[in-house]
Structure formats: structure tokens, C-alpha cells
Design goal:
Length: 292
């Protein structure tokens, strides 16, 4: 029974990991870069949501405003910071690390170190199903991520901008020749990734996590493991990988003696190493072929 309870809890955590992993994939497909600051962007969005609810805004409205602000901020960062450095060897990697440090510092300076609760998006309580306790917040988080992923899928499949983004992600030079504004698609991709991070950050608070500067650090590690499992260019892989990591982390930390809390990160690092050694492109990623 304990294993089933941990499995259910792991699916809820996996939904958060999948959301942030999807944000990493969108940013990567946009510009080919791994945004190590994705978790910190999500943290800043959660902090903004707390500030807005403190001003009297409903938590859902505050989340919508924070997601919109995150979209604008992510797009601006891509234009001002990322775009000028994309063609300069190791500079983008340094920029990604710098973004992580700067975002974390901004959070500490503006929000402080003290953890703060955020009003729940979903009602308290839950239900018992076959002896397993399922919180309404857990169900709500899973459904919210499902709605966001469905909406994002429809956007990429049914809209002109979404189709343009997919074309640029697949063949940027051919897209440029065809008249698609490649730089604009890159900007939109980073904006979408930041907005996805906002939803992930606020959703995490509904699983009992308080808002503080380091709230997404562990989540980022699990999400990177999820992307490694699924593939850095696969949205489906991010979802599957996030679910796998949530379940594995919950079962390992709950059942293996001596392994708890942040010690579960070792499992993530082990999984990342194994995937990179056996299938570097991930389970759903495309193998790159270099012609000479």
C-alpha cells in the first residue's frame, strides 16, 4: 500500500518536473541552448505571484499576470542577452550560467531568504481511494499541467506562429529562406518557456513547498534528468521523462533506507549518466547525423 501511495505522489511530482522539462525543451529547440536558469525564472515568477496576492489579487489572476510577465521577460532576455552571443563558441554556456546566478541573486535581494506560503490554487482536503490518500491539490496540479500541455500542443499544431516555430526548430536556414522570421520565433520560444516555468513554479507550491530563492534548485536537477531521458528536442520525451523521474524519486526516497530528500538527486545524476552513455539523444530524441 505504501508503494501505491508513493506512486500516486510521484505522478504529482512528475507533473511539475515535466512542466519545467518542457520549458527547457522549448527553449532548447528555439535556440539550441540549455537554459540552466529555467528554474530560477520559475522561482521569480512564483515570487511575483506571492507579491501580487499580497496586493489583493486572486491567486489565479496573479498567476496569469506572472505568466504574462514571465513571457515578456523571457522574450526580452533572448533578444538582449542571448541573441548577440549565440554564434560565439563557449560564450552562450557562460551566459546561461550567468543568468542562473543573476536570477537567483535578484530573487534573494528582492524577496529575501525567508520562505513564504502562497495561497493554494486548489481546495484543501482530498479523497480516499482503495486506502490511498489523494489530495485535491495533487489532482489539480496534474490536471493543470495536462491543460497547459494540451493548449501548447494545439498552439504548435494549429496556429501559424506555432507552425513557424516548429519549422525554425527543425530547419532554421531553410525557414529563413522561406521568409519565416527566425529571430522572432526564437524570441517567442524563450517567452513560452518562461511562461511554462511560471506555471511549474506556482504549481509546486500546491504540493507543500514554500516560496523561497532555492525552491526550484532540486526540481531543475530532476527536470534536466527528465529531458536527458526523453531527449532535448522532444516535447513528448519531456513529459514522459518528467513522469518517470517523479515516480522514481518518490519510490527511491520513500522505500530505500537512508535515501531521503536531496539525496534523491544522486538517482537523477546516475540516470543522466546512464542515458548519456547508452543513448545520448534520449528515448524520443532524434539522432543527429553529420555528413562529411
Amino acid at each position: 500500500m505504501l508503494a501505491l501511495q508513493l506512486l500516486v505522489d510521484g505522478v504529482g511530482k512528475g507533473a511539475i518536473y515535466a512542466a519545467l522539462a518542457l520549458a527547457i525543451v522549448v527553449a532548447h529547440r528555439s535556440t539550441g541552448l540549455v537554459n540552466f536558469a529555467q528554474g530560477e525564472f520559475a522561482t521569480l515568477s512564483a515570487m511575483l505571484t506571492v507579491a501580487l496576492t499580497g496586493l489583493g489579487l486572486d491567486v489565479w489572476l496573479a498567476l496569469a499576470v506572472a505568466a504574462a510577465a514571465s513571457f515578456a521577460g523571457g522574450a526580452l532576455i533572448q533578444v538582449v542577452i542571448v541573441r548577440p552571443t549565440m554564434r560565439r563558441d563557449l560564450v552562450p554556456v557562460v551566459i546561461m550560467i550567468g543568468l542562473y546566478v543573476c536570477a537567483n541573486a535578484i530573487g534573494q535581494l528582492t524577496f529575501g531568504q525567508n520562505p513564504r506560503p502562497l495561497e493554494g490554487l486548489f481546495p484543501a482536503g482530498g479523497l480516499m481511494l482503495g486506502g490511498i490518500r489523494i489530495q485535491w491539490s495533487l489532482i489539480g496540479v496534474i490536471l493543470l499541467q495536462a491543460v497547459v500541455i494540451t493548449a501548447l500542443t494545439l498552439f504548435f499544431v494549429r496556429t501559424k506562429i506555432g507552425l513557424g516555430f516548429r519549422a525554425v526548430a527543425t530547419a532554421p536556414e531553410a525557414s529563413r529562406v522561406a521568409g519565416i522570421p527566425v529571430e522572432r520565433m526564437h524570441m517567442i520560444g524563450w517567452g513560452i518557456a518562461a511562461a511554462l516555468g511560471a506555471v511549474a513554479g506556482v504549481s509546486l507550491t500546491n504540493l507543500g513547498v514554500y516560496v523561497e530563492p532555492h525552491m526550484m534548485t532540486t526540481v531543475l536537477v530532476y527536470s534536466l534528468a527528465a529531458v536527458t531521458i526523453g531527449g532535448f528536442d522532444s516535447a513528448l520525451g519531456a513529459i514522459v521523462g518528467g513522469t518517470i523521474m517523479g515516480i522514481v524519486e518518490s519510490l527511491v526516497t520513500g522505500l530505500v533506507p537512508g535515501v531521503s530528500g536531496d539525496a534523491g538527486i544522486l538517482v537523477s545524476l546516475a540516470i543522466i549518466t546512464l542515458i548519456l552513455l547508452s543513448r545520448p539523444q534520449g528515448l524520443f530524441g532524434r539522432e543527429r547525423v553529420t555528413r562529411v
